[in-house]
Amino acid sequence: MQWKEGYPLDFKEALKTPSEAEISRLMSRFSQTPRFVYGALMLPTVLKHFVSMPQHAKVDMVPATLRGFKLYKIAEGGLPTIVRSKGETSEVEGMLIFGLDDEQRNSIFELESGGGLTEYTAVQVQVHQKDVVGRYRVKDTRSFDAGTFIWSDHTTHLLTAVATSSWDLDDFLAGQFYENIVKIQNRS
């Protein structure tokens, strides 16, 4: 996922590659399976809005990659969804969210599965982590069990394939819906 200058500060912070120690801390603090998100919920302000968190609250999220799935847009709204791919090289970039309580997880479930077009499924995602070994900075990949929502309809005629592995946030960030969420969150 590319970091862009115009992205919200909290999202740019979340996009930083975590250290091995940071990942270990998250794993030891939270026992529930993290959620993998790949659309508007990747933005901390949007996530906080839909799970009723105050804007000043910290969200524990890190960039993650889901292999074996392909990113699509739902025809009219351009909102993203994912479909299990036939090729092993397909992947989707998103964010792995740790530390959601049951009520927050249920809020995401209601939001994502409300229309009956997606279903919750268990997946395994990869997280890049950085570390320092001696004088060298190294990157490593760690796998995590996670939950996410995938397209449940067996037909994909309502979908348009996305050429990249991550959802382009630019139109969403420039839209009125996001602006309204920011206003509401800033009042909390």
Automatic annotation (TrEMBL):
Keywords: Transferase. Residues 36-168 form the Gamma-glutamylcyclotransferase AIG2-like domain. SUPFAM superfamilies: Gamma-glutamyl cyclotransferase-like (SSF110857). The keyword Transferase applies. It holds the Pfam family GGACT. It comes from the Eukaryota. This is Putative gamma-glutamylcyclotransferase.
